[in-house]
């Protein structure tokens, strides 16, 4: 079951060309799990690993479970978090900012970890969102194969849709293990991406207050 909120967010992402590239393969989760398990057993065997070893024998199962139900669970809108949105009866007109939201995702180019934090702010119009729901939303879109730029935009569009205001901003600072543990092997660099909507884009003071 996909909630109305999840459907609205998905439609907006598709409309704006920001949905993760997906193709419908008509496999349910159980079928995905079974296929990945079989394919991962082949990968391990191809690497020359002994699948009869008691430490390795369950690895194809573990990876299939992890991909289907854990680190890529955000591909399935049935897992979109329930949102608690309330009316802005308290007439908040100033910025609400949540800092240091933990963010763990996976790089879609190499399938290794992206490890960082997000900062999210909005200026309420008619609606206020339960604070933990912002963290949950960040987590939902992180649990996909990602590039950091798209992840940042997806969170922006999702919050704009749910809060019914353009006045949302997000910044993500993250370390990419595809840069750290392989390839160029730079252990120190991190990447910062920002997506600004509404007044955060047009008003220098608002932008500066957010980036503080
Ligand atoms: N823009 C962007 N690039 C990313 C992200 N995650 C990984 N990359 C980069 O994607 C690029 C893929 O480059 P390729 O040349 O196709 O792959 P590669 O040969 O493995 O590249 P190296 O990492 O340089 O060894 C690399 O430069 C990665 O650092 C991301 O979130 N955003
Ligand atoms: Zn990568």
What does this structure look like?
It is a single chain. By secondary structure, the chain is an alpha+beta fold. It has a domain at 83-211: GTP cyclohydrolase I, C-terminal domain/NADPH-dependent 7-cyano-7-deazaguanine reductase, N-terminal domain (GTP Cyclohydrolase I, domain 2). It has helices at 4-15, 29-46, 59-70, 131-142, 148-163, 177-180, 199-202, 204-211, and strands spanning 85-87, 96-107, 113-122, 127-129, 145-146, 168-176, 191-196. It starts with a helix and ends with a helix. It binds guanosine-5'-triphosphate and zinc ion. Zinc ion binds at residues 107, 109-110, 176, 178. InterPro entries: GTP-CH-I_C/QueF, GTP-CH-I_N, GTP_CycHdrlase_I, GTP_CycHdrlase_I_CS, GTP_CycHdrlase_I_dom. This is GTP cyclohydrolase 1.
Notable traits:
8 helices, 7 strands, 212 residues, binds zinc ion, five-stranded mixed beta sheet, two-stranded antiparallel sheet, GTP Cyclohydrolase I, domain 2, alpha+beta, binds guanosine-5'-triphosphate, single chain, 21% strand
Strand order of the largest sheet: 5-2-3-6-7
- Order of helices and strands, N to C? HHHEEEEHEHEHEHH
What's the overall geometry? globular
What is the helix tally?
A: 8
CATH topology description of one domain: GTP Cyclohydrolase I, domain 2
Low-confidence runs of at least 5 consecutive residues: none
Helix coverage percent: 40-55%
Alpha-carbon distance between the two ends:
40 Å
Number of strands: 7
Radius of gyration: 19 Å
- The assigned CATH architecture of one domain is 2-Layer Sandwich
How large a portion of the residues is in β-strands, by DSSP E?
Answer: 15-25%
Q: CATH homologous superfamily of one domain - what is it?
A: GTP cyclohydrolase I, C-terminal domain/NADPH-dependent 7-cyano-7-deazaguanine reductase, N-terminal domain
The largest β sheet comes out as: 5 strands, mixed
CATH class division of one domain: Alpha Beta
- Ligand set: guanosine-5'-triphosphate, zinc ion
Mean pLDDT value = 97
Structural class designation:
alpha+beta
GO biological process, one term: tetrahydrobiopterin biosynthetic process
EC number: 3.5.4.16
Subunit structure: Homopolymer.
Protein name: GTP cyclohydrolase 1
